[in-house]
Amino acid sequence: QARGALGPALDKSTGTLLYNTAARLRDPKHLGFLVGYIVRREILTDLQLSAALEYVRSHPQEPLDAADFERACGVGVCVTPEQIEEAVEAVISKHRAELLAERYHFNMGLLMGEVRSRLQWADGKTIKNEVDLQVLHLLGPKTEADLEKKPKAAKARPAPAEKQKVAVVETGEVGMETRSLLEQLRGEALKFHKPGENYKTEGYVVTPNTMALLKQHLAITGGQVRTRFPPEPNGILHIGHAKAINFNFGYAKANGGVCFLRYDDTNPEKEEEKYFTAIREMVEWLGYQPYAVTHASDYFDQLYTWALELIRRGQAYVCHQKVEEIKGHNPPPSPWRDRPVEESLLLFEDMRKGKFGEGEATLRMKLVMEDGKMDPVAYRVKFIPHHRTGDKWCIYPTYDYTHCLCDSIEHITHSLCTKEFQARRSSYFWLCNALDVYCPVQWEYGRLNLLYTVVSKRKIIRLVEMGAVRDWDDPRLFTLTALRRRGFPSEAINNFCARVGVTVAQATMEPHLLEACAREVLNEQAPRAMAVLEPLKVTITNFPAPKALEVLVPNFPADESRGFHKVLFQPTVYIEETDFREEVDKGYKRLAPGQPVGLRHTGYIIAVQNIIKDASGRVIELEVTCTKSDVVEKPKAFIHWVSEPLACEVRLYERLFLHKNPEDPSEVPGGFLSDINPDSLRVVHNALVDSSVVSARPFDKFQFERLGYFSVDPDSEEGKMVFNRTVMLKEDPSKS
């Protein structure tokens, strides 16, 4: 991008800025934006770049406000040498007495810091040069006394409790990105109404009873923010639900409130107990505890009573139009819309007693919705036992009727839902007001979608039925149970939701952005181990000890204070087949005849002496000699290895679909089932892993050195562990 704008030759300062941008920018989506400012010479210093990187990190929402960004980064600000000279003079004058007393032992960094606070965008080198010049003018050249080192003051060591407190802040459950999400949600509070001030919301309908109802509401809640996460228990939660969970629970948490987990169990034919269990499990896995777990069915009696009241008020009627007749946006008006109240009351009672068959009668509300849909259905007949109420009911309320009234019963302050429910906002307000009950406020936000996948319950079931995936938790899917099984940490999913931001617009994201979040978390959480996917036997003919040596391997090489594990180093080790070649190509740095390599963590270098092949000419074993690494030239590469390993199965995953939008007929004319990637799963049956992982349990995570991040699969058995590759160590450029 830079060469396209500036030509093939880049000056050193531009190159340094570009390098620092690429090295320090966590989220690559802003790379082009920042590079544009660098090549236009609008970001000229590392100080400006640091401010730019901080700005994009703290502004995850798109698009970035260019004017605000430029103000934050000092774009167009010019600091003259005269201004720097004047600022340095003022600061030296302020500290003149201390400078004359301490001379060159005075902390010159303090002077530069004060000048920088006065001239934020001044060049650091220019400030330093000016400070040095003026200090020299004041104090003269350094004397021998000035050259003597100033004795260091002993630092008080923090108590263990203080250290632990700092560690919790840095590495606790709420990471930087999660805090960022909470900050975003606190920011949204400026747009959202305060509890009890529902009437200030645009479009909120105020009735003569509104203020009294809000006063009662505040007396019950104490002004507390209340939200709810209301999933249907007829499928497994997916990545889109993760945003909904983070938004509902996160908004309550960010504003000192509570969040209910309420199951919308109004459709008994598709609901199963396993879905109830899995939903709560996933909510808690993401780090949230519901204030209360409720069900729409808890309120069936109250909802029925209110339905009778709605009929009495002339706002609902029993209708006999068929489902096919009232589908779409312009169905014919119901001929029963104006039937007498008493008649509708009797017919609704007959519906409850089972005197009408399914589809023969519905209870409809008298209103026109924002999308033009007229008289939505409130109750329909279903002769299906309910998992909680049994055979008590043969009529069940719809979402349009149930949702707002359950929110009212639970005194929800902010009913947060995705954008497609915006068309139901008017019916939400209408129904609460028609019954003169407390009316919460519905707020909409954009859905989170992911490319290269499907999340529809119906479509996932078809994938399972045709054998393309094993079940809802197949690691190639983007259900939350599948992501957990594949090894994605819950923190990574929350961080991903934070980066997506609390946007009103629908967000469609690339999977590699989620994978990048996983790498960041796993790099800090997953201890290192060594594994070999395609083993090649290596015999060390001059092994330096009569028995196996114990090698200490750091769990986290960047922080050895987090411990070590022991690995046995024996005369027979196994390396990756791909780490050996008989012939060396240009750029190849690993093991080959005449090209030794180091064995990681051992302190030894091996060199090939003999190549053993089978009858077909395939290399099956290497005989090598080893030498201490401190007595020979440093090799070009160090490779991983295992010795006395555990046999294991490793499952390597790729994208399930070949195209970005498998459901788009213009992209995939044959439908999503025709777009299955035949190479989405490769199983390595005879991989080897070092024995340090023997006590690992399902969902434990490791970084297999040089291979990627892996998680223990629940299919693991004693004597045969199974690992799922979560992500590779580095992003595959072809996927970004």
Would you mind describing this structure in some detail?
- Residues 156-179 have low confidence and may be disordered.
- α14 links the parallel β1 (226-229) and β2.
- The radius of gyration is 33 Å and the shape is globular.
- Helices cover 35% and strands 18% of the residues.
- It has 24 helices and 26 strands.
- A 7-stranded mixed beta sheet has the order 12-24-25-26-22-23-13, covered by helices on one side. It has a 6-stranded mixed beta sheet with strand order 17-14-20-19-18-21, with no helix packed on it.
- Among the domains are: 2-73, no CATH class; 81-139, Arc Repressor Mutant, subunit A (Orthogonal Bundle); 528-728, Ribosomal Protein L25, Chain P (Beta Barrel).
- The longest helix is centred in the first third of the chain and has 16 residues, at 124-139.
- α8 crosses α9 (124-139).
- With 736 residues, it is of the alpha/beta class.
